[in-house]
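Dear Dr. L.,

I hope this message finds you well. Following up on our conversation about the binding site, I have prepared a predicted three-dimensional model of the protein together with FE2/S2 (inorganic) cluster. For your records, I am including the exact sequence and ligand specification that went into the calculation, followed by the structure tokens. Please feel free to forward this to your student if that is useful.
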Amino acid sequence: MALEFSQESEARVKEVLDEYYNVESTVIPVLFIAADQFGAIDGEVCVLVAKRLGLDRMHVETVASFYTMVPKKPQGRYHIQVCRTLSCAMAGAPRLADHLHRKLGVEPGEITADGKFSYEEVECLAMCGTAPAMIVNKTNYENLTPEKIDQILDRLE
Ligand code: FES
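The resulting structure of the complex is given below.
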């Protein structure tokens, strides 16, 4: 059976469509709505989004695959994206990734047993001037050290 948006998701999609002038600009916000409902974006969800927006499936899949913030796999309640690109790598990002790996006890892309955290290493998050950087859900963190990561994660409920 083909996927469908829930009533709540459909209401959110309508709000987005009302807000944006150009339907192509709604792809990312609608993908986020779909991710909230389905947990991640796969080919089937892209078909649903494309159908709902009247766009080509390939267009939606291209957008989904390009942007690292569009979840391709289920994530923990707090999803951590650690930058591994040059500026962050030179400022100690590999040490941060190792620290997260040890602290959370899971591999990149996996979810902790309590469902609270997941993490992945991603390309540039556009905070190169204050590297190393990470994003937790939609919050940016910069000038990181392992100690700062501990403080940030310990504050999350
Ligand atoms: S290189 Fe890490 S934010 Fe740009």
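In brief: Strands lie at 78-83, 117-122, 134-136, 139-141.

With kind regards,
A. P.
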